[in-house]
Amino acid sequence: MARPKIALIGAGQIGGTLAHLAAIKELGDVIVFDIAEGTPQGKALDIAQSGPSEGFDAAMRGTNDYADIAGADVCIVTAGVPRKPGMSRDDLLGINLKVMKSVGEGIKAHAPNAFVICITNPLDAMVWALREFSGLPHNMVVGMAGVLDSARFRHFLSVEFGVSMRDVTAFVLGGHGDTMVPLARYSTVAGIPLPDLVKMGWTTQEKLDGIIQRTRDGGAEIVGLLKTGSAFYAPATSAIEMAEAFLKDQKRVLPCAAYVKGAYGLDGMYVGVPTVIGAGGIERVVAITLDPAEQAMMDKSVDAVKGLVAACKAIDPSLA
Ligand code: A3D
Questions:
Q1: Which domain holds residue 152?
Q2: Does residue 229 sit within a domain?
Q3: What is the pLDDT of residues 118-167, one digit of tens each?
Q4: 168 and 256: one domain?
Q5: Distance in Å, CA 82 to ligand 1 centroid
Q6: CA distance 32 to 203
Q7: Does 96 belong to an annotated binding site?
Q8: Are 158 and 307 members of one domain?
Q9: In ligand 1, which atom is closest to the CA atom of 16?
Q10: 176 has catalytic annotation
Q11: Beta-sheet strands, E only, within the chain
């Protein structure tokens, strides 16, 4: 049986890391596309040359021609520009919307059966626009944000509690931005919810609130430290987790920016929710009951995403 084909659209910081991880995990053959001449070719060659030491079997090639993504099983999209210090993700909207148009058309023409994972920011609006431009089914186009946001939350919690990250689960809903909704009562250490851990004296409510805020600001903290560009190791790892769930039909329960129609009272929009990812793409949206305070946070986040989608429609009337 032929190996799966993974197309990476964008060969920047995240794109290169995705290529390396996909090869090391032997998820399939990798084609790296970028408009910058030489960048995808150079990164692909460099990564291919790590193969003998790593011992992986994966073909690795760079290209500037969309025709080369033909037949891809998975496309992961990072094309566009990242934030600079002081910028919000939303500041990227105008420039990255144009990029989504060309990427969406490229995928529509050459890889219409792929499972498409968007990473480009502002995430919830860009994944919506990419779906519109590509015309692919909604269950096959998804945004990566919740896996990363919950990984950040899990990391901070594991350090606070002095326990393995493997035993910490975390739950983050809503848009990938300042309004994201980390849910403490659905986040646990080995099944013990965070509010119980506060009662048990493992941490204080004040410290927990600080961790939740640090999770919300997780991307900006790294942008501020790096000064050029934004986070790329953990974002790439998160997207690879989603791609693997699809390629291996793992039925993983992962928070993603998925198309929600009906659940959470939403009438068809992309926003961060728990999903089941398997061979059918987004096979299910998991609807949980929110308490009034959580619902209020979710509503605020949904409104922020709706505002970004409206801004996209104002910029590109073909989306209206
Ligand atoms: P960067 O290293 O600049 O790579 C972007 C690549 O896109 C560059 O190689 C460009 O040449 C290429 N590119 C630009 N326009 C096009 C085009 N029209 N077609 C194809 N390629 C193009 O950025 P990065 O890899 O650090 O980040 C990529 C995106 O991911 C940015 O928008 C970030 O804001 C976003 N990001 C999202 C998250 C999430 O959690 C959602 C986290 C981190 C970064």
A1: 146-313
A2: yes
A3: 999 999 999 999 999 999 999 999 999 999 999 999 999 999 999 999 99
A4: yes
A5: 6
A6: 45
A7: yes
A8: yes
A9: 25
A10: yes
A11: 5-9, 29-33, 60-63, 74-77, 115-118, 141-143, 168-169, 172-173, 181-182, 188-189, 192-193, 252-261, 267-278, 281-285
